[in-house]
């Protein structure tokens, strides 16, 4: 037992010494990026998939758990692949040009986005839409910071909120098929299902009544 403990301590010392080697830093950063991408993807997707599956999807418990596990795995895997690809390409470009420049980030992320998130599926679609909304806000703030757009005299957020909600409900009412499926499900629950009831049970307790024959 003591010999096994000594071997483990020696292995840990060797691993820690390797992690301190500057010449391996870029490769180790890629590995750490893969690890962080996998963990973060699982943390983000698992609770979201759990809630959405049990709220809106039908099927057996086993089918629902399988769906949650698959969605979590896909999100975790894709984010791990993207982060490691991005960091690897960043390190390669910096090594080839001898320095880091802003274009490196854009180019590396474009390649990673094409390779990892290029497939049009529900998981990737949700991630891209999430990023798009943040990008629009970020570019708006950057335009003001750089002086391309004058600083608003009043907070524009109320107007933005009004336009976004007005547009999404118009799309839902008249062009529903253009919206992402999970958003359709959420809005159906909120705006369509709330128009239907038969008695107190499906008015306050349940969303829909299952009639037994």
Automatic annotation (TrEMBL):
One of its GO terms (cellular component) is peroxisomal membrane. InterPro entries: Pmp4. This is PXMP4 protein. It comes from Pandion haliaetus.
